[in-house]
Amino acid sequence: MSDTARTIGVVGAGSIGATVCADLVLHGFRVVLVDRDPAALERARRVVAEAVRFGPMLRPGLPRVGAAEALAGVTTYTALEALGGCEFVVENVSEEWETKRAVYRELDRVLPAGVGIGVNTSSIGIGRLAAETGRPELVVGIHFMNPAYLKEAVEVMRGAETSEACMAYVMGLLADLGKEGIVVGDFPGFVSNRISHLFFNEAARLVEEEGVEPAVIDQIFKRCFGHRMGPLETADLIGLDTVLLTLDSLHESYRDDRFKASAHLRALVADGRLGRKTGAGFHAYGLPAGGTGAAQG
What is the CB-side half-sphere exposure of residue 1 using CA atoms within 13 A? Predict the structure, then answer.
């Protein structure tokens, strides 16, 4: 990796933050990865090693980078102060308002003036988080999907105060990652999750209320509609804890009972069956995956 490589900060080393980190190093960026949990940072390094090995096979055209070179480009820390030398920061922490709020206040304190923040959120408004900083014009939503390095497009959410310069920077960054940025407005859930989480919730209700097997639901979406994954497989990949937090946030925002989480989904989360990262959710996966043991941020 070049000594002149640009450095991006990534906050949150959960399942999505780890794949954002992998995407950046695959494209020649240095990454400062911050998470308060050292175990999550170690898991993220394993995700990076796996991504550089298998990513180019799964998405032809991805750069080929050796695992040693990729890992040399990732430095890990448990304190946000380490982000001071980054040109931009992508935040991926849990979808809990108080958690995100505290992170944004601290980011505003430690980041130099002029450094922007990309909000990788499932449902929390960009303007609401931007208002917790003194740089609302430099806060923009960047909704990476999991795994980030295999996706060709990203939902970009422009806040009311997001500047033209910030938008231009983000669209350029995504282009450097080989991605198209699709711009939407700032409203709860945005386009992707306002629609997808209705699918997840209704699928969970079919299991709960009608006794439909999860495999049957997913097969219908894959075989009849041509989807690569069914709704319950997708929810398991995201993490059922994150799906539940997002549904709760959407229900609070819209006061619409379509977003009231299925009791079955809530029971799975309470039981620790969070999807792929714990080895079981709506489906069983065996042992937890080595690199995805923390929640999507």
Answer: 21
- Per the listing, tokens 């960009």 go with 126
Phi/psi-derived region of residue 178, left when phi > 0, alpha when psi is between -120 and 50, beta in every other case: left
**Domain 193-278 superfamily per CATH:** N-(1-d-carboxylethyl)-l-norvaline Dehydrogenase; domain 2 (1.10.1040.10)
Give the DSSP H/E element, type plus range, for residue 180: strand 180-184
Kindly calculate the radius of gyration of the chain based on its CA atoms and give it in whole angstroms.
18
Q: Assign domain 7-184 to a CATH class.
A: alpha beta
Q: In what order do the strands lie in the sheet with 30-34?
A: 74-77, 30-34, 7-11, 88-91, 116-119, 139-143, 153-157, 180-184
Q: What is the pLDDT of residues 50-102, one digit of tens each?
A: 999 999 999 999 999 999 999 999 999 999 999 999 999 999 998 889 999 99
Residue 230, φ and ψ in degrees, nearest 5: -80, 170
pTM as predicted: 0.86
Cα 93 to Cα 90: distance, rounded to the nearest angstrom: 10
